[in-house]
Amino acid sequence: MPDMTPLTYQILLALADGVRHGYGIIKEIEGRADAASAPSTGALYLALQRMQGEGLIEEPKSRPTAADDARRRYYQLTKKGRERAMEESTRLAALVVAAREKNLLVEGAS
Amino acid sequence: MTRWAVQLLLRLSPSVFRERHAEELIAVHDQRAAQTRGGPSALWFATSEVMGAAVLVVRLHFGLETGITGARGGATMWETTRQDVRFAMRTLGRNPGFALVAIAVLALGIGANTAIFSAVNASFFRPLPFGDADRLVMLFETNPEFGWDDATAAPANVFDWRDQVEAFEAVSGYSDFSNQVTAFRDGEPVLLGATEVIGNFFSTLGVVPALGRGFRMDETWEGSDNVVVISHDLWINYFGADPDIVGKSIELSAGSPEIIGVMPEGFSYPSAETELWTVPGWATTDRDAPFFRRAHWVRAFARLKPDVTQTEADAQLQVVVSRLQEDYPQTNSVMGAGFTPMRNFLIKEVRTQLLVLLGAVGLLLLLACTNVANLMLVRANDRTREIALRHALGAGRVRVARQMLVESGVLALLGGAAGLALGWAGVRAIAVSNPMSIDGATSLALDYRVVLFTLVATGLSGILFGTAPALQTAAGDIYGVLRDGARGASGGRRGLRMVSALVTAEIALALLLVVGAGLMVRTFWLLREVDPGFTTQGVLAAQISVPSARYQNRDQVLEFYDGLIRSLEGRPGVESAGTVGHLPLMGTSWTSSFQAEGWPPDRVGVEIVHRRADTKYFETVETPLIRGRLFESTDGPEEPLVIVVNETFAREHFPAEDPIGQKIAYDQAPTAESTWYEIIGIVGDQHQVTLGLAP
Q: What whole-number distance in Å separates Cα of residue B455 and Cα of residue B453?
């Protein structure tokens, strides 16, 4: 299975704890890094479109609140998306362990 | 602005995506834009948003959005491209004649552009060989009466600018005429190119010698002037890279000055011929002598102080200029001054020529592209059946168009590679012959800018000649073609329309080039037809310099020339021999204003070119005597002094009188000390400066 792009993983991560719309996903990604490394809006929607096609994410059947802006599309993880996110997390965690063993990661540093 | 660009790009996205996401995407973009602070982060945001939208459109259109799992069941972008390239190579290989012709045409176009661009690159973009060159300006004198706008300056004025203009950190200069000195190596004479510079020449330019030191200001003057600085080339070739060279002396015909420094490799300012820098050794009394302000031969430059603008410096310079005009009315009454950035001055002469050439080769490349596009269109017509079949087998229109584009890309890349090789050969040719005397042309090289330029030219050509065939295949009526089983009906007509449009464009471009080339040939022809006023047939010329250290007075110099001429004439095969101070068409030399005896004070002739010649000069170059007589051996340095004038001089300055017998002095306002010359003869015109200018 080919590698997952960082953006794909970031989106999966953002949706891991619930339903979000596009802007919410961006805010979540920006919150974890500085604004300069956040994806462009175009890149985000390109990824959303693609991930939907791949069956990693889907639009929920019911909208969170009725009073919300009707134009907004909401996304949530599919079962497959959650599996892929877990696989990727395991892979990354293994890398982190390896990095720690080779003294590339100092405890306590952020 | 950013929003507008993103919106425009989204409008180009496939409708499936647009209907679903466009509106929301813009809304999110607006929200993010509202939260971006100003400054660099806003710029970064704007750039990344526009880039992101552009990437989105391209990827959606070319079906590249298949991502991690290959859910579209197809190949990844990489694989598709590799497939396309392999297929393109096979198709081209099946038709090697077409491929070769296309590549050759492209290589010619791209190669010509590469070569000319490398020349442009060398003179426009390369850093000047000076320290902090942005603060260097070239100073010049202006004189509306003489039509001067970038003239060399009188040394006295240069020193006054240096002392009085606060904005200049330093002012220096060099004597602007080619100078050669004879050096002796093991008794054998060698001619070396030399430039006479003011003591602070190197320090003002911000260049530090590789060995030893540069001149000091006090070495400008007589008494401490027995020093020279040599070029890196001279150090290698003449002194065998002697590491202890500094402090040794070089044996010149005019003495044995001490070598105090060796300049860094590649430094030969002001001219490529400069191998030796000397100081003028002016007498300190010269500083106040009239000739020091009357004669203009110093090419001056200045270094601006770090935080001074050019406008401020110019304002200060003009104050000094007006003061000099008042203080020295005899010489400076109409003398102005100005400056221009060093780079502008250095590239001024080649700038237009280079840009015209670049335009011409640009047209050539366009022509090459239309040619190749034509070839490809014709071929695409032949391939309609193949393409229709591929459509029928399930290839999307976009996929097929993309295949055509990849084919063009492969062709363009091959052409570009061959063009780069051709361009390199062209660059070597330019470097060796240096037809436009570009400074630093010998170090012309294909640096990253040239390669980048070639890449861009290649990419643009690929797009230019690839678009038409790609569009045509994408739009072809495949069902019609397959049903008819014959050559494409509607696709063919469409193709023909495109071919004829291309042919029209091609003819227009070719016509433009032919007219341009024709004009150039015609100009050249007209210049050839100009009678220079002297003969070059069977005439040999040699340049000699008579060092003042060895020939100290006029009699010794005259004796030397007499001996030279006599021995030359004594040789078999020599019909006649003569000497002249400056050969025609070898650049300007001395010019003066003059007044004739008996003229009212306000009548002066300006800017006449004069030269010294001997008795046999006119005879030797076959310039006819119109009236009067030529110099004779009895005309010596004693009174009466005599001169010969040309026809134009006689016509312009003595329209009513007979010039023969008139006396003139090279002064605007002659005094008792002025030297008077009697006109004894009129000769035919010689073109002195260039063939295009009046004699």
A: 5
Q: How confident is the model at residue B303 (pLDDT cuts 50, 70, 90)?
A: very high
Find chain B residues with C-beta within 8 A of A36's C-beta: 41, 44
Give backbone dihedrals phi and psi of B592, rounded to 5 degrees, phi first: -150, 165
Q: Which residues contact B145 (CB under 8 A, 6 or more apart)?
A: B334, B606
CA atoms within 13 A on the CB side of B273: 12
Question: Which residue from B minimizes the CA distance to A46?
Answer: B56
Q: Which residues of chain A have pLDDT under 70?
A: 1-3, 34-37, 63-71, 107-110
Q: Give the residue among B280, B300, B132 at the shortest CA–CA distance from B208.
A: B132
| Bridging pattern class, strands B168-175 and B136-143 | unpaired
- Cα–Cα distance measured from residue B18 to residue A101, given in angstroms and rounded to the nearest whole number: 48
B21/A49 CB distance under 8 A: yes
As separate numbers, helices (DSSP H) first and strands (DSSP E) second, chain A gives 4, 3
How is residue A2 written in tokens? 């080919």
| Per-residue pLDDT tens digits for B577-625 | 666 665 555 544 555 566 666 555 555 554 455 555 665 666 666 677 7
CB atoms within 10 A of CB A6: 10
Contacts of B679 (CB under 8 A, 6+ apart): B628, B642, B643, B644, B645, B659, B660, B661, B662, B663, B664
Give per-residue pLDDT as tens, B326-376: 888 878 878 888 888 888 887 776 777 778 778 888 888 888 888 888 888
Closest CA to B394 of B478, B467, B470, B468: B478
- State the pLDDT at residue B616: 62
Nearest CA in chain B to A1: B69
Chain B residues whose beta carbon lies within 8 Å of the beta carbon of residue A23? 27-28, 31-32
Token code pair at residue B122: 């060398």
The tokens of B62 are what?
Answer: 């070319």
* DSSP SS3 for A9: helix
CA B416 to chain centroid, in Å, comes to 26
| Residues A24, A73: Cα–Cα separation, whole Å | 11
Task: Find how far residue B13's CA is from the centre of its chain.
Answer: 46
Q: State which H helix or E strand residue B664 sits in.
A: strand B663-665
Q: How confident is the model at residue B423 (pLDDT cuts 50, 70, 90)?
A: confident
Q: What is residue A106's three-state secondary structure?
A: coil
- Cα separation, B40 vs B56, in Å, equals 24
Helices (H), B121-242: 155-164, 201-205, 232-239
Q: Counting one residue from A and one from B, how many pairs have CB atoms under 8 Å apart?
A: 94
Cβ contacts of A81 on chain B, cutoff 8 Å: none
pLDDT at position A70 is 62
Which one, of B582, B591, B585, lies nearest residue B143 by Cα?
B591
Q: Name the DSSP letter for residue B221.
A: B
Q: Sort out which chain A residues have CB atoms less than 8 A from B71's CB and list them.
A: 53-55
In whole angstroms, how far apart are CA B71 and each of A51, A54, A55, A60, B81? 9, 5, 8, 21, 18
Tally of CB atoms within 10 A around B86: 12
Between CA B599 and CA A63 the distance in angstroms is 105
